[in-house]
Design brief:
The protein folds into three domains: about 180 residues, Rossmann fold (3-Layer(aba) Sandwich); about 140 residues, Glycogen Phosphorylase B (Rossmann fold, 3-Layer(aba) Sandwich), CATH 3.40.50.2000; about 90 residues, no CATH class. The protein is about 45% helix and about 15% strand. A six-stranded parallel sheet has the order 2-1-3-4-5-6, with helices on both faces. A five-stranded parallel sheet has the order 8-7-9-10-11, with helices on both faces. Strand 5, helix 5 and strand 6 form a beta-alpha-beta unit. Helix 8 packs across helix 10 and helix 12 packs antiparallel against helix 13.
Length: about 425
């Protein structure tokens, strides 16, 4: 055990909070206590979990940044681990934390699609970057970052203790996840073959909690996983690890690199298209003994190598060896990574959403702080300027503007021509 203090900056699930009606950011299945707090207690002598989502609903984004700096000054942790989500922390916050001697670790997900537009811009403000995307590792290194490859973030910390002699399978085929791209087509193919399938998550009709999700994995004869992101990029997702840790049988869309984690056809099964998926569903529904043997083998592999305890042990063992060898200097090329205006616009819109949500939920005072942050990141954010005026108006006018803003943003952004024109104009105006 390492005799040091660690602070985890992690989000939690607040989809039922009154602010979630206006701020979709609050909807997540991530459980900080399961993923990080408990396993890190086995590695470090003292672990503090800072639920920034909860505190953002109580003291706002500005208050969270100030509180985290004060917490670091008081506790003097060796590591501050930021489970990145969006723009909840300011660059200056991490700079202040590092000045206290604390090593700041950014833990990134979805780097297959988020690296260029999000993750890489944080490099100058972090000591270490952890990613689950194999192809992102050389990109981090090229920019001078200290990067560590780890199993994707969404891995439950404690595997289910399965009773393999008494398995209750309530579902033939199931899928837990958002509905996008060809996922609906895959599901319809299954339904058209009269194969019972249960789907859960955004777009399917029913949201499930983390506990329900894990129960579904263990109670399904076949758990499906689709490996493309919403941007149609292949990705090694956390779902295969979660399913196996829960003792479920996994049938996953093949993605390059998955064989580095599991033995295909022995611990998990893969498909490449709809026809192969249907054939394997029918085969494994009719071969119970073989299906359960694969599920058990996948469970053994996952519990031996892919719990959060195993993941963190490897990550921090690497850091503990690297720090004495190389010292604590940050990225050698921070001048090449100054955040461009398009990313500052994303910062600005993030804080605008919080300002609107806090205002519409009658959080007096906090919305002004969020709006000031929005304008500080992009002084030309017309919506933020307009909302500063409307924010003092009656509630019905605020709600009308917010509905208009959200409708225009989501209807115009998907149009490729308008999105490219907006990006081109921004680059010309701000030389980014």
């Amino acid at each position: 055990m390492i005799n040091e203090t660690v602070i985890i900056l992690a989000p939690s699930d607040y989809h039922e909070h009154r602010l979630s009606k206006y701020i979709s950011y609050l909807e997540t299945t991530f459980q900080g206590s399961l993923y990080f707090y408990k396993p890190l207690q086995e590695i470090f002598s003292r672990v503090l979990l800072y639920d920034f989502t909860k505190r953002m609903t109580e003291i706002g984004v500005k208050g969270v940044n100030e509180e985290v700096i004060d917490l670091v000054k008081k506790e003097q942790p060796k590591y501050a681990i930021w489970i990145s989500k969006q723009y909840e922390f300011q660059e200056s916050t991490f700079e202040s934390i590092r000045k206290e001697g604390t090593i700041v670790v950014g833990w990134f997900s979805d780097d297959e699609v988020r690296f260029d537009d999000y993750s890489k811009w944080w490099i100058p403000y972090l000591d270490y970057c952890v990613t689950g995307a194999i192809e992102a590792v050389p990109k981090y290194r090229e920019l001078g970052a200290r990067v560590i490859l780890a199993v994707p973030l969404f891995v439950g910390s404690i595997p289910i203790d399965c009773d393999w002699s008494n398995i209750e399978e309530r579902y033939d085929v199931s899928f837990v996840g958002c509905k996008y791209l060809e996922r609906g087509q895959y599901v319809n193919e299954i339904k058209n073959r009269n194969i019972p399938i249960h789907v859960f998550g955004e777009g399917w009709g029913r949201y499930v909690s983390f506990a329900e999700m894990i129960d579904i994995y263990g109670a399904s004869k076949i758990n499906l996983n689709f490996s493309k992101t919403a941007y149609n990029q292949p990705q090694i997702k956390g779902r295969p690890f979660e399913v196996c840790l829960a003792g479920g049988f996994l049938l996953t869309e093949y993605v390059p690199g998955i064989e580095n984690y599991f033995d295909i056809d022995k611990e998990i099964v893969c498909f490449h298209d709809a026809d192969e998926m249907i054939d394997k569903i029918i085969y494994y529904l009719n071969h119970e003994e073989e299906r359960r043997a694969i599920a058990q083998a996948g469970w053994k592999r996952a519990t031996a190598e892919y719990t959060s305890f195993h993941v963190f042990s490897r990550v921090f063992d690497e850091m503990e060896k690297d720090i004495p060898a190389k010292g604590r200097e940050g990225s050698p090329h921070p001048q090449q990574l100054k955040m461009p205006m398009p990313m500052r616009q994303d910062f600005s819109n993030f804080h605008l959403y919080w300002a609107a949500g806090l205002s519409l939920a009658n959080y007096k005072g906090l919305w002004k702080d969020a709006l000031a942050l929005s304008i500080s990141y992009n002084p030309f954010n017309i919506w933020a300027r307009l909302y500063y005026i409307v924010g003092f108006s009656p509630l019905f006018m605020r709600r009308a503007l917010f509905r208009l803003y959200r409708a225009l943003r989501y209807r115009l952004n998907p149009i490729p021509y308008l999105r490219k024109m907006k990006q081109s104009l921004t680059k010309r105006l701000f030389h980014t």
